[in-house]
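Follow-up to my post from last week.
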Amino acid sequence: MSIFIDDSTRLVVQGITGRDGSFHTSQMVEYGTQVVAGVTPGKGGQHFTAQNGTRIPIFNTVEEAVEQEGANTAAVYVPPAFAAGAVMEAADAGIAFVVAITEGIPVLDMTRAAQFVRDRGARLLGPNCPGAITPGVAKVGIIPGQITTPGPVGVVSRSGTLTYEAVAQLTAAGIGQTTCVGIGGDPVIGTDFIDTLRAFGEDPDTEAVVMIGEIGGTDEQEAAAWARENLEIPVVGFIAGQTAPPGRRMGHAGAIISGSSGTAEEKMKAFEENGIAVARRPVDIRDLVRECLGT
Amino acid sequence: MDIHEYQAKELFRAAGIPVPPGRVATTPDEARAIAEELGGSVVVKAQVHSGGRGKAGGVKLATSPDEAASHAEAILGMSIRGLEVKQVLVTVAEDIASEAYVGILVDRATQRPMFMVSAEGGVDIEEVAATNPDAIRKLRVDPRYGLLPHQAYGLANFLYTDPGQVKQATRIMAQLYNAFVENSCSMAEINPLIVTPNGEVKAIDAKVSIDESALFRLPEVEKLRDLDAEPPAETRAREAGLSFVKLDGNVGCCVNGAGLAMATMDLVKTYGGEPANFLDIGGSSNPDKVVAALEIITADPNVKAILFNIFGGITRCDDVARGIVEASKRIRIEPPIVIRLTGTNEAEALEILSEAGFSAFTGMDEVVQKAVDLAAQA
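User reply:
Got it. Predicted complex:
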């Protein structure tokens, strides 16, 4: 089992002919994801050929991709100026799971788009996220497939490469994953830590969760309190940004300590108070997961 | 992106918010001329991206043009929290009957623009929130409908009892919300919003931050960026498409991905060192970016060792390796470089580096320890 994506995932790639969209479509196809359609306005009727030769029909609209190919999941690689619009288009077409990879979408655009997706009963992952991967089954986004392997651990993170680091160490130690989810580094995102922890909690195959947070906001603190009350499986936590100065944005738009709020220290304390094992170094994540699983 | 008070006031003025007249000066003579033109008493205010200007002596009242010039002389060139004052705003001094606070920011928890208003103006709002939370009214605006008329009225009604003042403030709430949305602000603040003795409601201070991600569609706002207000290295990094924050340590860090970059800085600290910077070279691995990154890092005289930590996913390790080799040919790099590369095209990268005489590691902990040791020996 897994969360968010599985073998019923039928993906439409928005922005399939762009530089990032085309590269990652080939990667997703090679990994085994059912990429059933692409969308680029004005290129409807053409085909996209993946590196392995797979031909994917291109449509002008997501609506057509849903009607003609039964797409139920969308990956958005559209440039920032148009990305919030692309997210809303997908939700309007009946897509149930929209994954927004694009970085640099204006925050106020996202407040509207996130609300729009919720109003239609759909789920948004991201933006500014690496997407999700269910090892051995399918991936939506940009997480490198070769660093993952199937197994019992769920991974959720606000970061990209730091997640790869942790996942690669798990995989090297023979500890596989049910699903790895990057929720994104922006201040306004569609799916947060609690949403993802809840999904892992309902997944019978997930036996432990790794939660990788960073400075900024209070999502980790709220998730820690929620997990204590609602989650039966153990959680291992890591927070990046212990050395970050206040008031400065550390790469991610959402990674900023405002006043004295959103520090790594405060988040690690919330983890500890709520029974989450805190890894001090990335390499400790693997060892703490081992302890949780009793292996 | 922070903008100066005088720039924020221009945005407010364009939105219809009553703001006292004033102009910016860079010399005492200019300040005198503006004061003459405005007539009466003026306030001379330092224009720097920092709070606490008043406490630092950067805000002064002048009753004559000559006094305005001498205040400008004292304020120009002074340093407020490490920032040199290069401009002063000379603006009409208003008589004040009462002061209130009005601010909007994006509330992350509810994902909505949130108003905060308080009749306790002219003070630090975080302090009011901590000591007297009931003195603040919060309103989260539903982005589907914008600020509704009764909501704007409700905020004004919380601040004032006089119907005329409530009416003026209602209009200002709506105007501020429009300015916030139209300029894609992450924060907009009037502190204080005053009432004059004859009952006029006016904004006499203004603070605005713009969402960097929205600047692509706001060319006029982008022009408000004050390059003097950021360290040259950060300007250079921004232009090269790198995310960079200068810190005080001696281990220069070059990493791909913001989360991994922060975790790398933290690990430097864990092993007894201090990071000299945060630097994310981003997802695409253009060798030119690596060259720019090395130029920026080596320009900092504190840097005693340079640490690369690259997890190749989308970023190809061989591209980063080529960038390092290229940079070492183009610029003189004094501090020792230690490199960790793992993931996509790792083998090719190690070959490129060893041919050029660099040694590379594949483990994160060992490379960070090595960098900390080298910096300590230097």
